[in-house]
Amino acid sequence: MRRKSLLDRVALLGHGAIEIVTILGRSGLFLVHALLGRGGIGGGFQLLIKQLYSVGVLSLAIIVVSGIFIGMVLSLQGFNILTKYGSEQAVGQMVALTLLRELGPVVTALLFAGRAGSALTAEIGNMKSTEQLSSLEMIGVDPLKYIVAPRLWAGFISLPLLSLIFNVVGIWGGSWVAIDWLGVYEGSFWANMQNSVSFTDDVANGVIKSIVFAFVVSWIAVFQGYDCEPTSEGISRATTKTVVYSSLAVLGLDFILTALMFGDF
Amino acid sequence: MSADNAYAIELKGVTFKRGTRSIFNNVDIQIPKGKVTGIMGPSGSGKTTLLRLMGAQLRPSHGEVWVNGQNLPNLSRSDLFDARKQMGVLFQSGALFTDLDVFENVAFPLRVHTELPEEMIRDIVLLKLQAVGLRGAIELMPDELSGGMKRRVALARAIALDPQVLMYDEPFVGQDPIAMGVLVRLIRLLNDALGITSVVVSHDLAETASIADYLYVVGDGQVLGQGSPQDLMNSDNPRLRQFMTGDPDGPVPFHYPAPDYREDLLGKR
Amino acid sequence: MQNRTIETGVGLFLLAGMLALLLLALRVSGLSATPTNDTYKLYAYFDNIAGLTVRAKVSMAGVTIGKVTAIDLDRETFTGKVTMEVQKSVNNLPSDSTASILTAGLLGEKYVGISVGGDQALLKEGGTIHDTQSSLVLEDLIGKFLLNTVSKDAK
């Protein structure tokens, strides 16, 4: 058995670093080719609608259910803590701010990466391994325009919308728990929330976050599918990578964006 | 344009490298018009790469690829798009588009390259499906078809635009005798009836030799031999002989490189 | 057939998203449809604005009539300069009105309460309220209480 010397390990590390840079470059070119350049969205509007359906509409179920539960849990836990300071009335604003600023965009993006992102990766990877992408090329259709671009745009449009829906059902779930179950006074729940939630600072920033996440998650998902080894093992590795890289990217970007947006006090 | 009119496809001095490894080194291949030519060789010899070079999916590092009188690597984007109308490819797995039904699959190249009205497209699709014997399957989805049927639909799609050149990538792999027989018959029929040029890449010696008019055997990044199936059978070249007769040991050795047998048995292990 | 379901589905999805945005804007963040042109600026100087934040309410008799839009330090008088935007419909505030920083509830947030004076002259755009009462700091309050108790005992 060859034992790896220290030099070998350092070489591996360097090799790995170069790999990362190469992959970044390749994925960048991939993105530019798919989004810009001639041909717009191949297959036209029809394809985009179809992708919006499979990427966005079919994710609604998990987003709505998760949103309701998270809103309810936030309300419950928040109430428990705020009671100690006699500030139960503030539970509305706590739920709303937490969801709008952080949980809405981040959790939606993570769920999206797991459900829609991995589906996209698997779909494109499968097309690659059954040579459908090659067939398209041979017929003269650019697979980057016909297959990849509609899915990218579908992701860019769907995720921010899903985040908004997540926020709304989360706040509604939270209000149901707080008002109907825990007995917080309905008037002060909503009044406190409206007073402390600013459209430009909270809602808009949350939307900006979800747009950034949409871009990153969609990009990672389609690239991993397009770039994978065209075997079943390669596809399963690619879907895992999509979920892992998307999650890391979302959480990392969230910190940076939060620091930029809210970090000036 | 210096292409000889007897050849539909010509590879001149083609070198193809992947990274630093050269898959093909200064290779010359001529595919005669109107005939069935087989390209054979051991696994990993790059046969599929040759097909992709002919289909302009890959660019050679050096050399020229002449198809139907045009040097593919030099063509502009729109010229290449037009040139594709004259090429049909049947991939190993059929490669039907899984989200479209049989009709839409066969109609796809028509919709991309022409602006024919719907009735005409329907007529052409019916024609092509009739030729491969699957007109009744017109409304099925690909996952409702058997493997052999998928390939036949893919063949119908490949001839949708009446190309001059048809390329088959490993068409005989994993087929039962009936499906095999159907495919062999179709390849020969299409070639003779439509006067097209067929290139079959395969490592199935028996089937390929039975329908090919001319054969190329490639390996080690170059052409090992060419000629009619009869000529190759009688060749003197040892590598060629091993391939044609299926001898397990020869220039391509049986044993993976290993240390001396005796030492291994008596030694440490 | 199948196309119709897809198109309706996507349409509903887009609609739901936009509805969500609207709901968040109006019900959750209290974005009101009134444009900000309907307000006029007033200033007030306080010795201590502790706890007052931008966007806090400005109210009179408990009714919200505006909000705080800026808090700065006035470097000549070393007092806190509070800028308020008050609704134009409330344009009959006497110029000797009082502005106090009050607390909503015991530990609630701070807001500015305005009580009327009796002067004939009225506050206009850019006017200043001179009579001000600073924020109540809890420690001072407790200190006062203790002092009172001590002096009572001492008697």
What is the compact description of this entry?
With 265 residues, chain A is mostly helical.
List the helices and strands and how they pair.
The complex is a heterotrimer of chains A (265), B (269) and C (155).
Chain A: H1 6-35, H2 44-55, H3 60-83, H4 91-129, H5 132-139, H6 143-181, H7 186-196, H8 199-227, H9 232-262
Helix pairs in contact in A: 1-6, 2-6, 3-4, 3-6, 4-6, 4-7, 4-8, 4-9, 6-8, 8-9
Chain B: E1 7-18, E2 21-32, E3 36-40, H1 47-54, E4 62-67, E5 70-71, H2 77-83, E6 87-90, H3 102-113, H4 118-132, H5 147-158, E7 165-169, H6 177-194, E8 197-201, H7 205-211, E9 214-219, E10 222-227, H8 229-233, H9 238-245, H10 261-266
Chain C: H1 2-28, E1 39-46, E2 57-60, E3 63-74, E4 79-87, E5 98-103, E6 110-115, E7 127-129, E8 131-133, H2 138-154
Parallel strand pairs in C: 1-7, 2-6, 5-8
Antiparallel strand pairs in C: 1-4, 2-3, 3-4, 5-6
The sequence of SSEs of chain C as H and E is HEEEEEEEEH
Radius of gyration of chain C: 23 Å
Question: In the CATH hierarchy, what is the architecture of chain B at level 2?
Answer: 3-Layer(aba) Sandwich
Question: Spatial order of the strands in the main sheet of chain B?
Answer: 6-7-8-3-9-10
Q: Count the beta strands of chain B.
A: 10
CATH class of chain B: Alpha Beta
- Calculate the mean pLDDT score of chain C and round it: 79
| Global geometry of chain C | elongated
Order of helices and strands of chain B: EEEHEEHEHHHEHEHEEHHH
Query: Would you report the number of β strands of chain C?
Result: 8
The global form of chain B is: globular
Q: Determine the N-to-C terminus distance of chain B.
A: 64 Å
Radius of gyration of chain B: 21 Å
CATH superfamily of chain B: P-loop containing nucleotide triphosphate hydrolases
Question: Features of this protein?
Answer:
A: 265 residues, mainly alpha, 9 helices, globular, B: 269 residues, alpha/beta, Rossmann fold, 6-stranded mixed sheet, 4-stranded antiparallel sheet
Structure in words:
The complex is a heterotrimer of chains A (265), B (269) and C (155). Chain A has one domain. Helices cover 84% and strands 0% of the residues of chain A. Chain A has helices at 6-35, 44-55, 60-83, 91-129, 132-139, 143-181, 186-196, 199-227, 232-262. Chain B has one domain: Rossmann fold, CATH 3.40.50. The mean pLDDT of chain B is 83. Chain C is 28% helix and 33% strand. Chain C has helices spanning 2-28, 138-154, and strands spanning 39-46, 57-60, 63-74, 79-87, 98-103, 110-115, 127-129, 131-133. Chain C is elongated and about 90 Å long. The mean pLDDT of chain C is 79. Chain A binds chain C through residues 49-50, 52-53, 56-57, 60, 85-87, 96, 100, 158, 160-162, 164-165, 167-168, 171, 190, 193-195, 197-199, 202-203, 207, and chain C through 6-7, 9-10, 12-14, 16-18, 20-21, 23-25, 27-31, 55, 57, 106-107.
